[in-house]
Amino acid sequence: MNVAIIGATGYGGAELIRLLQQHPDVTIQSCHSSSQHGSETVDSYPHLQAVAGMELKPIVTEEIARDADLVFTATPSGVSSELVPELIKAGTRVIDLSGDFRLNDTEQYEAWYNKKAPNAAVLDNAVYGLTEWLDTDLTKAQLVANPGCYPTAALLGLAPLVKRQLIDPNTIIIDAKTGVSGAGRNATTVTHFTEMNDNLKIYKVHEHQHTPEIEQVLSDWSSHAGAVTFSTHLVPMTRGIMTTIYTDAPEGMTTEKLVALYKESYKDCYFVRIREQGTYPSTKEVYGSNFCDVSLAYDERTNRIMIVSVIDNLVKGAAGQAVQNMNRMFGLDEKTGLAFAPVYP
Amino acid sequence: MNVAIIGATGYGGAELIRLLQQHPDVTIQSCHSSSQHGSETVDSYPHLQAVAGMELKPIVTEEIARDADLVFTATPSGVSSELVPELIKAGTRVIDLSGDFRLNDTEQYEAWYNKKAPNAAVLDNAVYGLTEWLDTDLTKAQLVANPGCYPTAALLGLAPLVKRQLIDPNTIIIDAKTGVSGAGRNATTVTHFTEMNDNLKIYKVHEHQHTPEIEQVLSDWSSHAGAVTFSTHLVPMTRGIMTTIYTDAPEGMTTEKLVALYKESYKDCYFVRIREQGTYPSTKEVYGSNFCDVSLAYDERTNRIMIVSVIDNLVKGAAGQAVQNMNRMFGLDEKTGLAFAPVYP
Amino acid sequence: MNVAIIGATGYGGAELIRLLQQHPDVTIQSCHSSSQHGSETVDSYPHLQAVAGMELKPIVTEEIARDADLVFTATPSGVSSELVPELIKAGTRVIDLSGDFRLNDTEQYEAWYNKKAPNAAVLDNAVYGLTEWLDTDLTKAQLVANPGCYPTAALLGLAPLVKRQLIDPNTIIIDAKTGVSGAGRNATTVTHFTEMNDNLKIYKVHEHQHTPEIEQVLSDWSSHAGAVTFSTHLVPMTRGIMTTIYTDAPEGMTTEKLVALYKESYKDCYFVRIREQGTYPSTKEVYGSNFCDVSLAYDERTNRIMIVSVIDNLVKGAAGQAVQNMNRMFGLDEKTGLAFAPVYP
Amino acid sequence: MNVAIIGATGYGGAELIRLLQQHPDVTIQSCHSSSQHGSETVDSYPHLQAVAGMELKPIVTEEIARDADLVFTATPSGVSSELVPELIKAGTRVIDLSGDFRLNDTEQYEAWYNKKAPNAAVLDNAVYGLTEWLDTDLTKAQLVANPGCYPTAALLGLAPLVKRQLIDPNTIIIDAKTGVSGAGRNATTVTHFTEMNDNLKIYKVHEHQHTPEIEQVLSDWSSHAGAVTFSTHLVPMTRGIMTTIYTDAPEGMTTEKLVALYKESYKDCYFVRIREQGTYPSTKEVYGSNFCDVSLAYDERTNRIMIVSVIDNLVKGAAGQAVQNMNRMFGLDEKTGLAFAPVYP
Fold first, then answer.
1. Which of D189, D191, D194 is opposite residue A181, by nearest beta carbon?
2. B239–A198: do the CB atoms touch at under 8 Å?
3. What DSSP designation does A147 have?
4. Do A191 and D188 touch (CB under 8 A)?
5. Count of C-beta atoms within a 10 Å radius of residue B230
6. ipTM higher than the 0.90 cut
7. What are phi and psi of A298, to 5 degrees?
8. Which of A175, B57, C53, C307 has its C-alpha lying 20 to 30 A from A313's C-alpha?
9. pLDDT tens, B108-150?
10. How far apart are CA C103 and CA B180, in angstroms?
């Protein structure tokens, strides 16, 4: 299978290269960059020397579509909305890692992203690719909207309770923490080493564009779902997301029941690991891997449930889930090329 | 004023030395350690060379009480409960940095600390020293129970709303994050550099001993207060606590009103800095200082309030607040020796 | 091929599990631990859940030797010296990751390691496994002494110059810096997060046990080699070693010549990447991978050469080079199971 | 004493504010910024709220010179060279923290800084302010060129040996490591958190502009001094410099002699702490303070001396030494306002 990567100089693109280079059924046919074309991948990423050195090409959608069985667009929001329809029109299949094709409601998109919404016809055909909870057979999909990093962690943590209508979705509070790679490769004062090291920041309070994405999926799963509280913090680490989720509990809840429910819900999902009662994951325990680890705890003092989920934001939160979706699109075992251990310590 | 420090080889003790060495009205008369006596402070802490090198003495309460106007007990819970009554009996005044004299209810103490409660008569005379919200004149106090690090951050963030009965305390959820120095100086696998670096952990889920301390104070402030949800995370940084607090809002709330209320509530409190609407503190902005910075945000989508408060856990969360309380006990301006800037970056 | 890992709860053992689990020709038949046997690998390392969960077995050398084609001993120095002869005697092949079989001179071993030297007959048959510069065909080797992390980085950086007798080995100064995982998993005050974070330490000054290992190899390569200056620093990072090496230059040296010499020397070595003139590697550019990146710079002002080499201490400096040696022992392409990209960022 | 700070939005300027705000004899009369004037100090540095909030004013040299007894120019190289002569001409005294007035040889300046050298007459009157080794009475000085961070650490480490002609200066190799704040506040990809965290980099190989500064001082101290090898590394920490210095030893050297020599040399220097034989400083042990800690070790195997010196690059390496020089200029005890402990941990 020949694939092309557009936006190869961002962290999402670099991680796609790392994962696809190891994939037994894939050849990276070409890498593309709007700003760096003409240079080499190793000029941007010296770690790729000897592994995936190749020229960065310009973005000519027709040529790309002609040569590739699948295109990954790891481009910023607002760029994908222009590029993807051209690629689709030219006849190739696409997995888009931006936020452009995730929100069905174009008004929501324009309100939260502050950008013009993509073409409605293309958007209508996009499948939201939260792999473990797909309601579509991806082998037919032409466009997969790869989920955001935060929504992946939060939704995998919430799905069993919300889908079975066991909780009131309006009591959900998601306190999310991310490593700094989630902010991308552009240097800013906020993410300057000296400002971020040994520091903890809260950012985009009540304004994070992943909020409507989470709410949209919860609404699909439960007719009672409305607005959720979702906050985001920058932790002085490179990779990793932890979401600590609080919600009111239904009557008769126990931690045992929660753990049993989640184990059952995810029993066929290799990449979701439910922790034993009383043990909790740390972000480093999924570092570099496609796993999402989830712990559950019921607190009888407050009658609330706490859900803790962790992912590597660049893998299960971006490139890894994209490869998992690719495997589904082409009828492969979803684990192909992804069943390796986290890098620990 | 002559002071003694018991427990000088822990982080709380070392930070007391740093602060008291700079204090214009204080002489550190002696430092004591149960395990290291006979050695020098600089053997444990080379950074004190030329600044506060002195012998570590054994803990002989009568001698200490005889020579010191005030004793800081920076000893572990379970040790203070034995030591402090002896010091009080010997006639000196004490500021205790452990959790032993904070909880009025000895059953709660024994349940959460898993240790024997201290002498009831001594406990009854202990004043809980959340300096900004004292209801007692400390000049008469013989024993001050210095608040825990988490309760300091959380309670300073909650006080204006709870004391004015503006919110339902049962809707309070406190998502707390701490730097690793909060775990003390004892080396463990959990806090081993290699295990903690580039990592984020959740710990003591529903079991943290600061929970009843927070609840006790909230109950003092509001008759409706009951159990709160309180969770604790270890962030890969040395110092700093951030509490992100969620609570349901009363009708008609706005962020403007919140900021105005907090500015009014803390207008005479040098060490509590209320941030302007739309700006948020990071932990490093109080690093090494006695400040607590607080931001407020109302979210009309969910009708919830978010309060963000940050402190340096070793200063306002321990040694700094202890010095602030000492200033109060001896009739000094509370800022004396503490009005310096955070170390940034 | 069936392999056993003894010492599976240390970082070297855990990294072997990660690498061997991905290796197409290997089955991890059993993992062994003297202290943790009876528990599961995931009890020590939750990140291995679903990937390499298995029971930790006791160390019964005869059983292990009977069932395994190869045994990795990732045991501490002083333990391997006892275990390995038993395994050899029982007829299996061994790659030892400790320092016990690296020094030919048992007096040197006892002086630097402060332990009793291993059996001389077994020692004599051990092959020092610096893979790129082996002078033996490993397909016949029964025991490979896997090199130390620092010697690997330093020797790969020095080999082309020393082996061709281009420099005076007595002018070599190696200033080495390591991530903290090199100190192992045992919690100590020195490697406590709070003490190590945002900190840089120098340690084992003139006493590091890798000094005679470096000197022994240099002596094998050049009859003029004697003592070298070798210093070691702890950097607040998890993985990675950088050696900055200084040496007097021969007449007529230029950076161009150095780069050309090294490219030629390593042209058949996939895992050694020579950087272009004027560019330098950082440790993260080999993170999680088996690469060693090397840069060269001649300074005409001082007539000295600077060599910079970086490795991941747990991969090329331990488990990765062990797998590379395993590949050689069993006649496989040395890249098998190791040709993946570093994890960046 | 009224002082003005020009360049108050850089790290050097911010650190000057922190130190001068605590100084008992100083009033910060005004802060100036070319780019941020009109805004407040707290807009750039929220940590200064309540401590040193004030308006940032434009740079009008005549007004500044009229109102201030002393001006600190914490401006970039190339800017100071223009500003300082105007300030001097307007009659004020100046401490310049840039590199512009450190090199006597304007050709060297232009070669290493790639900027136009400052006015020769002004340069001739500049005193190089390595406080512990001044050969001038600063009470008469109108312009002090505050030393660079690296030269301060290296020269304090080398002075006793070089000034007494005990070593051959041509054998000096300085392997220097710095925290990232040394690179300033401008966000770049090299110092982006995600690129620098858990990483170690070497930079400006054979091109660092502090090289000629070190060589110039060594030449002043020893007629045999020529070029030195000086290399610079970026360590993932905020503050701190360590220089590991290697040099050939004279006959009959021992570590005891070295330690005794250094203790004697620095016996009247509060801010230089010589460590006992066999103990070594880490950078965090001087964090936030004006101390320089130095250890010595002689290696008989190689007949080389190793000197290890650490400073906080923003304090003894910049703002702290500037305040120490200010104290000297105005006849105060050099410790005034600076005799506080490092922040540890």
1. D194
2. yes
3. P
4. no
5. 28
6. yes
7. -100, 140
8. C53
9. 999 999 999 999 999 999 999 999 999 899 999 999 999 999 9
10. 40
